[in-house]
Design brief:
about 80 residues, mainly beta, 7 strands
Length: about 80
């Protein structure tokens, strides 16, 4: 997802991006490190940024950060641990 970032803010600890796999036990999550206001298909939208599961040296939009085990971005959620 190549987009222009218009604004960037750090995410509060506890925000996660959740991913689905073929089986329920394949689900994974990643910590959202920041929120970005970007150009989307229908105008500007907010996306979470996560560390790329395939390359931990990159930070990518959550929908692009899925792993091979859980390749489908599902949703954002907050876990106040």
């Amino acid at each position: 997802m190549a987009s222009t970032i218009h604004s960037l803010v750090p995410a509060e600890v506890g925000w996660r991006a959740f991913y689905r796999g073929e089986y329920e036990e394949d689900g994974e999550s990643a910590r959202v490190v920041a929120w970005a206001l970007v150009d989307g298909a229908d105008g500007r939208e907010v996306v979470g940024l996560v560390v790329d599961a395939g390359d931990p040296t990159k930070i990518v939009p959550a929908p692009d950060g899925a792993s091979a085990l859980a390749p489908d971005f599902d949703r954002y959620g907050f876990r106040g641990d």
